Amino acid sequence: MKKLLLSLVCLLAATVPAAAQTLADYQAAAQRGDLQAIYNVARCYENGYGCTADQRLATQWYLRAAGMGHADAQYTLGYRYEQGKGTTRDAAQAVYWYGQAAKQGQAAAACNLGSCYYNGTGVGQDYRTAAAWYRRSAEAGFAAGQYNLAVCHKKGLGVERSDTEAARWYAKAAAQGFAAAQFALGEAYEQGNGVGQDFHEAVRWYRAAAEQGHAGAQCNLGSCYDYGAGVERDAAQAVEWYRRAAAQGLAQAQCYLGICYEQGVGVARDEKEAVRWYTKAADSGNSQAQCNLGLCYYRGTGVRQSYRRAVDWYEKAAAQDNARAQYNLGVCYAYGHGVKKDYHTAANWFRLAANQGLTDAQCNLATCYELGWGVPRDADQACYWYEKAAAQDDPEAINALKRLRGR
Questions:
Q1: 82 HSE (CA, 13 A, CB side)
Q2: Rounded to whole angstroms, how far apart are CA atoms 33 and 68?
Q3: Cα separation of 242 and 33, whole Å?
Q4: pTM of the entire structure?
């Protein structure tokens, strides 16, 4: 799953002022030039401690403290400029103040400065500089910096690509409870990237992230229960975790939940509920859900049967290179379902799916060559595509090869 480099909202822990008298004391000390008091006045105005919250006043006080060299104030001021909180949004000023704080060793600022360089926010995009700042943050023990450095190693951006280094930094951040890193480490163990493949470890880290509400981890944990990978197979638990992720809008989980309802796995079979979840995921652009929804319309499963609507959804999924949707479109063109019958177009869709290794498409494309449907009759090409499918133990292809070679 796609991982996003984060610009963290991490206001650092500090003593929390709790009363107006405390604010008055801070203000008095601030008038005497006490730097920490100036910073604390800013926090009071930001959070409404002993006063009515006033973001513009807070920014003014943070600016005063930052100008006097207070690292945490510099970091916070950078964040406020980045987000436009209590001031006009100004990415260049965010970079400046993150830089001032990072030079003093403020780890969160170094992380956010890295993200500015990574994303080209307020400064020219520069992956090498981004990775250097992430490393400073990571080596200071900041979890988000460790995670972002891991992503750089995973993608080979600004540093040497290394699954091993990525897994090492994911593990450091995960150990601190950083959910995105726990999820990524779970994927590393599941796929054997940078660490030995270990489904039990994958489940352990997916669960840690899932219990913090990470939707991707919830979905993957559901899949582990669905297939019995690293945990005893439990369809009901699979549905529960899919449902949690689906409720957060994760399209892949919505699709999986739709499959569970369609097939009655871990939940009572309900074709209309399946269509409802497929539709949510399909509307978000999930190609698997678009293909499945198309098949529901094709068969009239949970909806009024409509070849035309089936074709519409197949086309959306096929445009994203979904092989099954490309094959299904080929079938529609071959039979004239929802479109005008056109063997040439059917063969083209079969070819696209066949090139992705889909055996049904390979067999149908071979048949097209064998019989001259939409393509010139060509026994060699027919055998070629039957052989592709037969190599995947497709019985239809195996029998077809015996028939052709027996001529």
A1: 25
A2: 10
A3: 56
A4: 0.90
